[in-house]
């Protein structure tokens, strides 16, 4: 759920609760206050009544004299009770349409002696309808609640956008951040302290990660380069040993095997250096490369191998297809694809179809059905079965495609391996 | 007069192998392990070819090339480098190197390239490379066996020149593959294509009753 909605819901619920509780408390306060005031009022009424009775006013005359309702009963003797308050229920003087309703009133009850007569007097205060008061308070509460919720929604939606804008910007920047592209994070100054802190922390973290990533990359590349000199030494020593005419066939065989292994290591290392370079984006700016010509040129280099395997090559190459790329990388790309198509072709009499248009490059070759998961074909060090290849060729192809935003697809159908590059 | 080579390489083990291999091929090889000793040796004698490693402990091989060019020395220049980035290559060539070879390399390959450069420098490429009954006019790429012209394919021609450059040497299959196909050598190593070429070459030469080359000097292990 979006923070906005969470905010609105929590704030609204809390506000509603507070307003409701506040309403109830207000109601009771007011009722209590009214009661207190009516008690004070009744006390003074009591004093007035007593005084008037003592002055000789008849109880029956009293009714008109004070505004409140008064009930006077003659009693035979004074009770010991002190004056007390009670709540009486009174019947509303009902109109015909309205239902009969009752309301409560405060009354004071006391005994009084006038001369030799004793009276029990009840004075009931007439005050505003209790029920109406509750209703009014409820209305006020409801109106404030609605206003409150509206205000919360309004404030949250409009202010939220403004306040959280830097956060969403940060999020966008982070989403687009690719470490291998050597991006540096840039944030405008956020005027909220927390966002400013967040941005600073992220910038610092990204810097650290980039630094570590780069040093790791540099390490890989440097290691690959440093390996080359020892390899050159090993290679040269093997070659010198081989010049020895006294070598037994066994010794010669072992040296050849060592040489073969070193050579594999050399090729592996070369592949890794190319990949490290691509990973590090150490690439020149793309220029227009005529890939139609390039493919013809590259194919020439493989003529021997194509003849040896008696491969039938069918070309459907549009003239002068130009793409923006690095000429060296384009060469590596085509070399690897063609090499792949030859290496994994049938032992003899297979075919290779090459199609080049402005939209795609398609290389298809006959070959046995792939044994393993074809999704992994483009992963580093992936080898299909007992292939003696290093498993870097297609990984390099994929990396080059990534750099120039070509999509690459592999497909096997009816004995035909097809690799399609979408170069549009 | 002997052909002289100055080898500037700081890795002593490698330098020794190279020097030994080149000496065995009839070149006179002087070794220098640092930039300064290379400058000294250049002052002491003239060389036909200078082989320079780019990474030297007390300077860059590129600077050495600049120094050589400033001195207007006639020697052919070959850069050897552990770095194979395009930048190194371009930088090296623009400052006047004749060839560039990436570490690790085959001694036979280096030897062949040194010989090629020396031939180019000395004879402007108009030299005839001779070996027993075989004569090769390098510029026109024409091959003669006992004065009769034979037609070789491009690869067969390259193979023959490579063999003659490394006469009396034992060469590995990898080295041949690299020399002929460079970056696509792995395809050649995993196939019989080299044998096919050698077989054809042998046929074309022996048809002209040239026995000696074919008899013994091509020796390889499977």
Structural class of chain B: alpha/beta
Class from secondary-structure proportions of chain A: alpha+beta
CATH topology of the largest domain in chain B: Rossmann fold
Task: Give me the CATH superfamily of the largest domain in chain B.
Answer: Response regulator
* E-strand count of chain A: 11
Cα(first) to Cα(last) distance of chain B is 38 Å
Descriptive account of the structure:
- The complex is a heterodimer of chains A (424) and B (222).
- The two termini of chain A are 39 Å apart.
- Chain A has nine helices and eleven strands.
- Chain A is α+β, with helices and mostly antiparallel strands.
- The model of chain A has no long low-confidence stretch (mean pLDDT 84).
- In chain A, the strands form three sheets. Chain A has a five-stranded mixed β-sheet with strand order 6-8-9-11-10, with helices on one face. In chain A, strands 1-4-3-2 form a four-stranded antiparallel β-sheet.
- In chain A, helix 6 (291-301) packs across helix 8.
- Chain A folds into three domains: 3-149, no CATH class; 193-279, Helix Hairpins (Orthogonal Bundle); 287-422, Heat Shock Protein 90, CATH 3.30.565.
- Chain A is 54% helix and 18% strand.
- In chain A, 19% of the residues are buried.
- In chain B, helix 2 runs parallel beside helix 3 and helix 6 (154-165) packs across helix 9 (193-206).
- The model of chain B is unreliable at 214-222 (pLDDT under 50).
- Chain B has a five-stranded parallel β-sheet, sandwiched between helices.
- Chain B is of the alpha/beta class and 222 residues long.
- Chain B folds into two domains: 4-123, Rossmann fold (3-Layer(aba) Sandwich), CATH 3.40.50.2300; 128-216, Winged helix-like DNA-binding domain superfamily/Winged helix DNA-binding domain (Arc Repressor Mutant, subunit A, Orthogonal Bundle), CATH 1.10.10.10.
- Chain B has helices at residues 12-24, 35-44, 61-70, 86-94, 107-123, 154-165, 173-181, 185-189, 193-206, 212-216; strands at residues 4-8, 28-32, 49-53, 55-56, 59-60, 76-81, 99-102, 128-131, 134-137, 142-145, 148-150.
- Chains A and B meet through helix 4, helix 5, helix 7 and helix 8 of A and helix 1, helix 7, helix 8 and helix 9 of B.
